[in-house]
Design brief:
Blueprint (H helix, E strand, L loop, with lengths): L1 H26 L16 H4 L21 H13 L2 H4 L15 H4 L2 H9 L1 H4 L18 H13 L6
Helix pairs in contact: 3-8, 6-8
The structure holds heme C.
Length: 159
C-alpha cells in the first residue's frame, strides 16, 4: 500500500514537472533576427553556394542619421578582406564596379543591403559598363550592415 502511494506520488510529480516544463518551453521566444542563417534545406556540402538567408521585411528602409564608429571600423575590415575593394573604391573612381562613395544618395539602406546580400537578383548582371558580375560574397546581414556604416562614414560631404 505504501509503495503504491509512493509510486503514484512520483508519477504525479513527473507529470506536474512535465506540464511546467512544457509551458515554460512554449514561452521561450526566439529573438527577432533579420538574418535567418543555418539553412536546413540543403546538406552542408552544398551550403557554400547558398546565399545567406535573411528576412528582408525586417531590414530598415532608411539610412541611419549618423554612422556608428565601431560598426564602420568593422565594415572597413570586411570591405578590405571580403573582396569588395578588388572591384570597388570609395572615392577613388571606378574599378571593375562602381565607386561606392555617396551610395546613400543613390539607393536607400534596404536596397543597398539587398544588393550586397543578393546581387544576383538585385543587379542586372554584366553590362557594357562593367565587364564582371558582382559575385555573392556571402556576407551575413550584420556584416552587410557594418559595410554600409563604413560607406556612410566615408561619404561625408556628398551633395
Ligand atoms: C568581382 C567584382 C565585384 C566584387 C568582388 C564586389 N562587387 Fe559590388 N558590384 C560589382 C559590379 C560590376 C557592380 C555593378 C553592377 C550593376 O550595376 O549591374 C556592383 C555593384 C555594387 C553595389 C551597387 C552600387 C551602386 O552604385 O548602385 C554595391 C552597394 C556593391 N556592389 C557592394 C559590394 C560589396 C559590399 C562587396 C563586398 C562584399 C562587393 N560589392 C563585391 C562588382 C563587384
Amino acid at each position: 500500500m505504501r509503495l503504491k502511494n509512493l509510486v503514484l506520488g512520483i508519477l504525479l510529480m513527473v507529470l506536474a514537472l512535465g506540464v511546467l516544463f512544457y509551458r515554460f518551453a512554449g514561452e521561450v521566444k526566439e529573438p527577432e533576427r533579420i538574418v535567418i542563417d543555418g539553412d536546413t534545406s540543403k546538406p552542408w556540402f552544398l551550403k557554400e553556394d547558398t546565399p545567406r538567408r535573411y528576412n528582408a521585411e525586417k531590414i530598415p528602409q532608411l539610412w541611419p542619421e549618423e554612422p556608428v564608429d565601431s560598426l564602420a571600423e568593422w565594415g572597413r575590415e570586411i570591405f578590405l578582406t571580403r573582396g569588395c575593394s578588388v572591384c570597388h573604391s570609395v572615392g577613388e573612381g571606378e574599378r571593375l564596379g562602381p565607386d561606392l562613395k555617396c551610395l546613400h544618395r543613390r539607393r536607400d539602406f534596404k536596397n543597398s543591403a539587398l544588393v550586397i546580400l543578393n546581387p544576383d537578383s538585385m543587379l542586372s548582371g554584366t553590362t557594357d559598363r562593367y565587364p564582371v558580375e558582382m559575385p555573392n560574397q556571402r556576407l551575413t546581414y550584420e556584416e552587410a550592415e557594418a559595410v554600409l556604416h563604413f560607406l556612410l562614414k566615408e561619404s561625408r560631404g556628398c551633395p
